[in-house]
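Action item from last meeting closed. Structure (229 res):
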């Protein structure tokens, strides 16, 4: 019976896996050039402030302010969540994979929240780490580049006119975990961002840009290191 039980689980596991979208060979443009990979990512250290609506089951559950300080060169991140009145509910930072939570009030104090938030910020603002696994076009014509993550997952970055640029993160089994949409406007690409998270309890974040500017200040972690010297 012990040998039969794992065999029963195999079809269930295989059924839960999904195939990634098929990527066709890149189609050259009229001038014969191959389209470059879509790149909605930061090119320099930036400080961004967004008004964020949290939605579950289609209903708005809360509105918060998100402050992000991100450096794509070093992949350092400092982020905070505040109320409209300026009360800090959450404050964390990451350097070289080392996560430090400075403040976390309910409901932002769960064990996985900080890491998930940092991972989502990196997904939105940083180009995927590693090498491109595949490049080409989707059947509908969208330009797409696919990265294979070290943990076995996949990241697709695609440009689909007139919809704009999208980022999709899949598990190693091909299950869609995150879907980021940058609304195409004539303004800052980070003006309107939607992040859909597919978890046990799915939710979406609607981010509206309040302010963004190149950041001259150092991240919190760097400041802490300087004090120790």
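Sequence:
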């Amino acid at each position: 019976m012990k040998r039969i039980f794992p065999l029963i689980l195999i079809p269930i596991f295989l059924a839960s896996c999904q195939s990634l979208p098929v990527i066709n060979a890149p189609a050259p443009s009229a001038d014969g050039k191959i389209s470059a990979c879509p790149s909605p990512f930061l090119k320099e250290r930036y400080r961004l402030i967004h008004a964020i609506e949290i939605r579950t089951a289609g209903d708005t559950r809360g509105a918060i302010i998100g402050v992000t300080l991100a450096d794509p060169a070093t992949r350092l991140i400092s982020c905070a969540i505040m109320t409209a009145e300026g009360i800090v509910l959450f404050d964390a930072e990451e350097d070289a994979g080392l996560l430090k939570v400075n403040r976390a009030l309910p409901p932002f104090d769960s064990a996985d929240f900080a890491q998930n938030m940092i991972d989502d910020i990196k997904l939105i603002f940083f180009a995927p780490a590693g090498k491109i696994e595949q490049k080409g076009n989707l059947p509908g014509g969208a330009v797409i580049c696919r990265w294979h993550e070290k943990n076995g997952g996949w990241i697709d970055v695609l440009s689909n006119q007139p919809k704009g640029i999208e980022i999709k993160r899949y598990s190693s089994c091909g299950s869609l975990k995150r879907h980021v949409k940058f609304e195409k406007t004539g303004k800052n690409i980070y003006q309107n961002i939607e992040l859909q998270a597919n978890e046990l309890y799915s939710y979406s974040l609607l981010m509206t840009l309040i302010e963004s500017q190149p950041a001259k200040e150092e991240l919190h972690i760097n400041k802490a290191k300087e004090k120790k010297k």
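Note appended to the action item: The chain is about 15% helix and 45% strand.
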